[in-house]
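ok new one. same drill as before - structure tokens go in, u give me an amino acid for every spot. 311 of them this time. try not to just spam alanines like last time pls lmao
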């Protein structure tokens, strides 16, 4: 069965365009979307990382307006809020802890209204006070709740799954370098059969052995490949200021913060991630289509036939 391209649930930007930037414009959103389409990203979620309120006030309505245009109705499928309801622990990654907050329904409603109801996914940390009731509220709106950037206990992750969370954001990443060998959110997330694992298979974020373990544990039906494409994806190697920090993009494609050694998103598109995953010989061609097209659409409740018809 042929698919028209791939569906990416985590795209922070592309070719110098940052969906979380104060300089974002309608024209930049359109440009990034068209460039992504050339790289077989047939549909995606625009992802905003943790931002100050004035950026949300500017960018969420812009993203919503572009989604209303005929050319992008079934290309930009919605908005993925990665934050601001995240843990300011060592798992924060490149997210600025100054702008993080505890789960708050009123604050979410404000963001939801700014986005004109077009938020499709939100990443939250399971260990935060109020996360369980917040998850019930947001999932009740039909929004996919994903868990990430967390140091949650197994019981907290399981409780959020019961409250309506259905996925794990870039499982295996958004964690400190050192974690408990038995009791940690990576193993707890892998062990929960109700949570789909979104994974970045660019050859840098996860070693092949861990990718294999995740696929064997979850089964292909509960795996979704994402790119986590950063705004410098598609650009030449060099030094870039990204997410408020200095980053280096190497010739190999590795993108990282030289001060901490932490990765700063990916320089790959989802097509490149699928191609790398194929080299590992872990999935059949049909299963690669599942993890790169059908599974992500099912996770955010979108009919694949709509995407096929409009490709």
């Amino acid at each position: 069965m042929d698919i028209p391209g791939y569906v990416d649930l985590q795209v922070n930007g592309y070719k110098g365009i940052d969906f979380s930037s104060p300089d974002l414009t309608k024209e930049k959103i359109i440009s990034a979307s068209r460039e992504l389409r050339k790289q077989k990203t047939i549909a995606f979620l625009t992802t905003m990382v943790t931002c100050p309120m004035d950026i949300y006030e500017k960018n969420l309505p812009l993203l919503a307006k572009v989604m209303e245009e005929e050319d992008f109705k079934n290309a930009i499928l919605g908005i993925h809020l990665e934050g601001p309801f995240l843990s300011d622990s060592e798992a924060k990654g490149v997210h600025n802890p100054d702008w993080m907050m505890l789960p708050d329904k009123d604050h979410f409603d404000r963001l939801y209204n700014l986005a004109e109801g077009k938020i499709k996914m939100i990443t939250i940390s399971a260990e935060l006070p109020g996360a369980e009731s917040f998850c019930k509220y947001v999932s009740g709106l039909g929004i996919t709740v994903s868990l990430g950037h967390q140091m949650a206990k197994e019981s907290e992750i399981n409780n959020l799954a019961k409250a309506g969370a259905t996925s794990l954001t870039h499982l295996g990443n958004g964690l400190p370098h050192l974690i408990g060998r038995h009791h940690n959110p990576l193993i707890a997330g892998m062990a929960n059969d109700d949570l789909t694992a979104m994974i970045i298979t660019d050859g840098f974020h996860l070693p092949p052995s861990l990718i294999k373990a995740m696929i064997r544990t979850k089964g292909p039906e509960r795996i979704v490949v994402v790119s986590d494409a950063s705004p410098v994806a598609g650009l030449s190697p060099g030094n870039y200021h990204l997410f408020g920090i200095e980053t280096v993009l190497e010739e190999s494609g590795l993108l990282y913060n030289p001060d901490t050694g932490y990765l700063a998103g990916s320089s790959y598109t989802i097509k490149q991630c699928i191609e790398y995953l194929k080299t590992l010989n872990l999935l059949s061609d049909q299963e690669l289509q599942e993890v790169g097209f059908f599974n992500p659409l099912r996770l955010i409740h979108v009919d694949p036939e709509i995407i096929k018809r409009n490709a």
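The longest helix spans residues 53-68. and btw The two ends are 15 Å apart (CA to CA).
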